[in-house]
Amino acid sequence: MANEQDIVRDDGRAKWSDLWLKEDYWAIWVGFFFIIVAGIIMMNGRADIESKLASYNQVIAAEKAKPIQTIELIQAQAAKKSVAGSALPAAKTLIGYLATPAKWSGNPVDSFVKHANEGAKPAAAEAKAAAAAALEAAKTAQASAAAESFANADLNKAAETAIAAWQKADKASSAAAAKVGSDKNLIPGLIILGLGLGVITSVGMAVMGFNVASYFIGFIGVWILCLLANFLGGYGPASKYGLNAEIWSIIIGMVVSNTIGTPKWIKPAVQVEYFIKSGLVLLGAEVLFNKILAIGIPGIFVAWVVTPIVLISTYVFGQKVLKMESKTLNITISADMSVCGTSAAIAVAAACRAKKEELTLSVGLSMVFTAIMMVLMPAFIKAVGMPEILGGAWIGGTIDATGSVAAAGAFIGPKALQVAATIKMIQNVLIGVSAFCVAIYFATKVEAHEEGTTVGPMEIWNRFPKFVLGFLAASIILSTISGNLGSELGNALISNGVNKVTVPLRGWFFALAFVSIGLATNFKELAKYFKGGKPIILYVCGQSLNLCLTLLMAWIMFYKVFPEITASI
Asked: What is the pTM of this model?
């Protein structure tokens, strides 16, 4: 019997049971399990990292007082950049198990097993020796300048020239060493990772009342398809055209489900929402307020002003102009296209109680257009000579998937990548806001009007996707910790520590979800939603509005209202 303090819902069950019986909450528990594990590893290495940072800062402060950039200053700055929680022994081991199949173009085996390039070793050894000789020459020149207390302009210039030559040689040595590579065998790690994720997610399935044995066996099948998708996504020539692992995941799943049919033994593990909601909780750990503030008000205007305008306008267009029969399909596509793709689609679909087929259709449209945009937008930006920061802001506010945003931004340049990724992060905050607003609107306006009933606050709470609370909690907690640690230590332990664990894990959960979406998709069931081509028209028109408004807002904010922020990036 429930405790008298338990609040009982309309269906008679105490709400506290949801904490263990609903996948929304288990997505939170799974996500936070990994966040906590990563956090413990980082905090155990905090003292060592803090000591290293203090030591390097001391050297940097002393060397900066000298009139030239000394060898010690350059080495200390480089060493400081390498200080990260991800370099801790325990973190390196864990992160090693999270690696995805490598990029490949010739030999498919290179995706999983790669050997050092023996032919490149002589050149690497020669470059290393040259760098060592250049360093000795630089030290000699610097010592001569130091002997004169850096008061001799000629000796200072000679030291600077020798140091620059050493830096060039050192860079060449690093490039030569990278060509050699190292022996890697990802197969054992991928097997352990698959089994580990299967066991951890099985705990939730067991408590929720599912057959654990059936789920685990099916999970192995989904995992194998997931690895195949990542393998194909790593094929260089195809990946250049947007055929990444996410798209391959859906394609492979759809091919299986619409040819031989999804095998019965795999079906228990086709848990689309369980996987993607767990991934979204992990995504929350990446949304750090200090990164949002790095771009500041311009980025907030681009993400938080344009997005709701586009979402509402697209939904109204779908209802008033296209006269779409399904309001839930309309709002899911509108949110998918305007907010941040799949993540927003999942949250909003749960809030408005969209059908499984409607969510699948929305995600499919998003994937196709994301692949097209991540190829065409960078090409267009470069062709017209658009400023790098403006191009990055445009990409960050329009391309849906976070990974695709980073890839497109990187194609333009480092500043574009930074701005694009940050604006997408700011936009991700709207996942929870969008879900909450849609839950209220559909409960109080759409369904209440259609059914003629009055909806109270409890119904809004019941339909609100609870995993969003995990997403927000992860963001707030890690942002607070990062802020309290300070910029340098917070960056080392959170951005370059915890996030180095959560980001690849989030990618794997999304990949599992996309394979599951494909396996659960039946073309015959989807056909009726494409009647008249309305979903495609809705997406194209909405995205066209999004492209225009985002570009205009980015130009106004970054170049007219806040040019000083743009200049500082």
From this structure: 0.83
